[in-house]
Structures are given as C-alpha cells and as structure tokens.
Amino acid sequence: xxxxxxxxxxxxxxxxxxxxxxxxxxxxxxxxxxxxxxxxxxxxxxxxxxxxxxxxxxxxxxxxxxxxxxxxxxxxxxxxxxxxxxxxxxxxxxxxxxxxxxxxxxxxxxxxxxxxxxxxxxxxxxxxxxxxxxxxxxxxxxxxxxxxxxxxxxxxxxxxxxxxxxxxxxxxxxxxxxxxxxxxxxxxxxxxxxxxxxxxxxxxxxxxxxxxxxxxxxxxxxxxxxxxxxxxxxxxxxxxxxxxxxxxxxxxxxxxxxxxxxxxxxxxxxxxxxxxxxxxxxxxxxxxxxxxxxxxxxxxxxxxxxxxxxxxxxxxxxxxxxxxxxxxxxxxxxxxxxxxxxxxxxxxxxxxxxxxxxxxxxxxxxxxxxxxxxxxxxxxxxxxxxxxxxxxxxxxxxxxxxxxxxxxxxxxxxxxxxxxxxxxxxxxxxxxxxxxxxxxxxxxxxxxxxxxxxxxxxxxxxxxxxxxxxxxxxxxxxxxxxxxxxxxxxxxxxxxxxxxxxxxxxxxxxxxxxxxxxxxxxxxxxxxxxxxxxxxxxxxxxxxxxxxxxxxxxxxxxxxxxxxxxxxxxxxxxxxxxxxxxxxxxxxxxxxxxxxxxxxxxxxxxxxxxxxxxxxxxxxxxxxxxxxxxxxxxxxxxxxxxxxxxxxxxxxxxxxxxxxxxxxxxxxxxxxxxxxxxxxxxxxxx
Length: 686
Prior knowledge:
Largest sheet: 9 strands, antiparallel
Radius of gyration: 28 Å
CATH topology of the largest domain: Jelly Rolls
Shape: elongated
C-alpha cells in the first residue's frame, strides 16, 4: 500500500471513529391512535383512561358530569430516560428531545373550561394526591414550589389565576404551577378549548447543547409555525432528576373540560446510565476527546490529499486495468459490448432516447442494429471511484440472477471512463407511469393487470430472499423500479442499491445513510441504517397499497400524512374496500382487493418481525392461504425494539446523532444524490 493510500485510510478511520464516538443512541416512539394495548406501554394513573382512540388524561364525559369536576390524572410512558450526565473529563451533558402531540381539549356542553393540561417531565409516574384544580396534576399544596419534586412542564391553562396573564395561555412550569415564562395565545389566534372543539398540534423541543426549550402550537393541519410561541433558557440538569419520565398531566376544577391526547411522537437522546457504566463514562469521554484531537491534527491534510486522490482516480478512470479485470472475472459475466455500438444504438445518447434518470445515472433506449433488438442502456453519471463502486455493486448482484420477473442484464461496457450496463428493454415502461401519468399511451391499469403485477413482484422478491444461492436485499422496492414488459408482466429492476448478503448474515449496513425512498423505507431503518428482508417486505407492502389504492405512499389523504395510516383507519371502521382506486369504477374482485389490502397492511407493520415472510406473501396472493389477521389499530413503533424483535443485533446498530434539529438521513435515488428527510411527526428544532 502506498503512502497516499495509507494517509487517506488513516484520516477516514479517524473521522469515522470520531463520528461513532460522538453519535449517541436515539429513542423514537410513535404512539396512537390509542387502544387497550397501550396499557402495557403507558402508566395510566386513574382517573385517566384510554378510550375512544385517545388518552383521556381526565375522565371522559361518558362517566357522567358528577365525576368530571375536581379531578386530576396522569399518563406517562413507562420507561425512564437518563436526561443528564455529571461533568467529568468530557464535561456536563444534557439530553436533547423532541415531542409532538395532537390534543383535543373539549369544553363540555359549551360550558366554561377548566383547569388545564400539561406535557411534563417527572421523576416518577405517580399522581400527587389533591393535585386537581390549579395544580394541573403536577403538584399539590405540599409539593408545589419545592425543587425536590423534579417536575418541569409546558402547561396549557384555561383558567386565570392571580399569577396568570389570562385564561388562555401557555407556560413553562419549573417545580411549580406558577409559570416562570408565559405567553398569551390570544395574539396567536389560538383558543385552547374553543366552543365546538378543535384539534391542536403542539411541538416541544429541547436542545441539550444550547439549553433552549421551545414550544409551538397550531390548529391541526396548519403545520408548525415558523416562530415558537414560547422560548426559554433552561438547564434541565438543574431541575429534573437524572432518571425521569415523559408524559401528560391534566386537571379539572369546579369548571371542567375533557383533556384528550390523540397522537404522540417522542424522540429522546439516550445518555449512558451511570449505574450501568460507572467510572467507564469518563474513560469514554477521554477517548472521544483524544479522537477529536487526532482528527484536528490530520484535518489539514484533507484538502491536499483529497484533491490528489480525486485527480489520480479521474486520471485512471479512462483505463483502469483493475476494474477491467474485476469485470472480466465476475462469475456468470454477460457479454462485453463495444462502446461504439452502444453510442450508435442510442444515437450518441440523444436526449430524445432518454427513458429516465436516477441517482446512479441516466437510462436510454437503444436499438442494436446487428441483433435488431431494443435495449435499455444505463449510463453511470459518476465517472469517479464512487461511480465505479456503484457500477460494480450492481453488476456483482445482478449478473447471476435469473428469474422471469427480474429485468434481465444483457451485458456491460467500460470505455473512456464510461461505465454502462445493457438491459432488456421494457416496452411498457415503469409501473408508476401507468398509475400516475395517464395519457394516450398509459391508460388506467385494470384490476386483473394490477393483481398480476403484484403477484409477479412477490415472486421476484421470494426468489431474491429464498431461492437464489445468496440472500439478496433489493433495498429500493418502489413502483418506479417495477418495469412492465410487452404483456404487462412485472419485472423488478434497478439493482443499484441491492446487496447480496454473506452466508449467515441477515442484514446489510450502509454507512452513509438510510438507502431508499421516503414512503417505502421501514421505520427501523432510520435507526439502524441496515437493510433486511423485513425492510424489503415493508417496501413491498407500500407498493401493494399504492397499486390497489392508486395513491402514492406519501399521499396526504383523509386527514392522514401517509397512505398506510388512511387505509388502516378504513380497516378499523370496517370500510376497507373504500380504499380501492376509484378510477376502477368498482370493476374489481372484492375478495381479491380485500386480500391485497390486508396483505399490504400486514407488510406495513411497524415491528419488523411481525411482517409476513415472502413465502407466505406468495401463498396469500395465490389464495392458497387466507389473508393475514391485521389489528384494527396500527401498532406503535418503539425504538429500540424489544429483544428478539429484529433479525439483527439492535445493540450494535448504527444510530443517528441527536442535535439541535435532529434529522435522520436517507439516500434517495429518486432524484439523485443524498438528501435529508425530516421525520414529519417530530419536527426539528428551529
């Protein structure tokens, strides 16, 4: 190995080590709509209940008015979090968190509301006695204003006390119901408990680095405001216990209201448990500092060495003998095409022959004159070493795959730095064009064709997962990667992200982010960076719902952010067939539609090991086994997953750093390059 390579590898290792040392683990939970299963996830302190698809923090009206007055309740997530670390070699650390929740605070019979609702951090899950009325379920006359109570809360107060600005305000409460910071919501056009009832979204963000707490509020559907309603400097370490709980509290007084939480998303930076780590914490911090110093010392080399490496690789790209040998030595390697033939076939890669473009390159239609056959030529866009890696990765996976529902690779070309792959041409284009781009050429797909296409994709996926000599995970299953031949048979294509797993491995880790396209990515992938057969099944479920419903997975419909949530709500209400694409005008087989919709929901299960295997999927589609049972409510996604819940070791999974404005990364090949995706239910700070 030459000096240049040694330096580059050393720098890369230092950067990677420093990044890994600095990346804390992240907890992320998405809760709701709520049902009885949540009694196993939350501590529900009576008279709080879970009913009517909501957390009823104070009693619901069905219990009678005489039970509504002068009550208080709490509902907290039943696991605690380490929210700060003592100063040591690495200094003090305070956890960041994001919380967003959809609430409905309803005044009964249009009476005056009372008393209030709060999002809280507490040292335990117990409800203080006599915490009704002005105490909001947070404190009582004995514990209020006592720093030892360890309570911090964001209140939404509907009764004016002598220390309040009005009867419609937000406040930051620290150990006391007398808010340290308050803001009237009147000027923001928000009424906490309006006559007739409205849902409101609340966002609470805390940055452990800047020690800033921000709270936002808006009517449902209006999106998060650009400016927080309340901003306050707050060092949580000074006010809450090291191990604390998140949740909600509320109370009523002589006037009463219903305090309902309809949905809740919680993201928390997970710090080390001092009881588990002991003195090892300071040692780890010292390692982080040393690694950071190492990176600083070597960083000045990056520009010079990086430029040199880039230049040398570009210079070699035109005729890289190592790449050529690698291509020629691949087992089962298809034929090598001459560049001049492909150039002629595509009319010098004329834009008029362009079929599509993705993150890896451009695909052109071509005609090989000698064979008199049409082909699709994929021209890789990156002529550097990364482009070669993409090229080899796709070739390594697909060159030996043989299945009637996979796009067939015909050959390759490497000339003058150009990297090209040649595939069978699919005359009917991609599935998404027929679903969403209607014109004279793309008519509405009938039901029989849709069912046939889904069956073909399932067959291809089963082959990749079980029948090929290595397990292959596709990692980017979506409608635009499903091609249709002359008879509208499905052909799964674009293996640019696919990986063949080594024997006895069940997942593939991607260091640069979460590969795939939003709407098709399984929720666990945002936390592990790993692709599995189960994550492929999740993408397949999104495709099934997309084909049956004629809507994209990220479609906002029926008041829901994603298609799967809308379909699940129809299933719960016994109206599942209303999800079928209305353009079919009821010309479909109801039993088949029911089967596919249930299958799509089962494949979209938030917990990976609850999704069906591809063998079962194929049997369900063929009708040889019944549709899978699907719960009426979409189960909660909780991370880290329960033990045994995944095929891979969650304890060693890659995680995404939690900083101000935490955003998990993913790599989208839909529009090319790396993009950032903000997890919509838990918006970033700022």
